[in-house]
Amino acid sequence: SFDLTQPPSVSVSPGQTASIICSGSKLGERLASWYQQKPGQSPVLVIYQDDKRPSGIPERFSGSNSGNTATLTISATQAMDEAAYFCQAWDKRTVLFGGGTKLTVL
Amino acid sequence: QVQLVQSGAEVKKPGASVKVSCKASGYTFSDHYIHWVRQAPGQGLEWMGWINPFSGATRYAEKFLPGVTVTRDTSLDTVYMEMTRLKSGDTAVYFCARDRDYPGALDIWGQGTVVTVSP
Fold it and tell me: Which of A20, A33, A42, A51 to mutate against chain B (most B CBs within 10 Å)?
């Protein structure tokens, strides 16, 4: 079966670049999306169709997808970016989520 | 504005059923699939299923078959998720979310409904 794997945690210093990866067999042949979720809140879509940003999402959020890995990159990371991030893709008309990555800004 | 508003928190006993509603507004209801996603305490997102509000067609994650049914009422622009034979492991926050352009990304999320299953 098709699975999406993320590292449980990533740490970054304020102002630096954070990269969060999502791995899956031939993931690059599918479209990947990314969601940000802060404690007690609903998820928010930050990247869709591999690299597109919804309106209202800051330009410091970017995405790429190739081979077996999709990557969410956050440039000039701010304290407000501290959150859990989930990748998502489709498999045979069903939705899959990665296990999530907790981004700590310290 | 485009939004999904869910029904309030529920407390149920094991073996009972629960039905959560998700009312859409600000867009044409039949134009976008609606998904249900749950999140157990301290855990990740788990996809449950989707419904095509136009046709009523549904698709579920195997894990939730049988036991979960998603329906819609087009006169009310509302989608429902019913879960039967609840267990303590079903304690979670249940979200509805709109599909941007099936099969696409989930671009609008409801506020979540807490379902607690406890004796």
Answer: A42
Contacts of B30 (CB under 8 A, 6+ apart): B53, B54, B74
Using CA atoms, how far apart are residues B56 and A45, in angstroms rounded to an integer?
25
Task: Sheet containing B68-73: give its strands across.
Answer: B3-6, B18-25, B78-83, B68-73
Partners of B23 in the beta sheet?
Answer: B5, B78
Counted residue by residue, chain A has a size of 106
B27-77 pLDDT per residue, tens: 999 999 999 999 999 999 999 999 999 999 999 999 999 999 999 999 999
- 3-state helix, strand, coil split of chain A in percent (to 5) is 5, 50, 45
Q: Which two tokens stand for residue B104?
A: 């696409």
A64-96 CB burial, b ≥16 within 10 A, e <16: ebeeebbbbbbeebeeebbbbbbbbbbeeeebb
Provide the shortest C-alpha distance from residue B75 to chain A (in Å): 27
B64: contact with A, CB 8 A cutoff = no
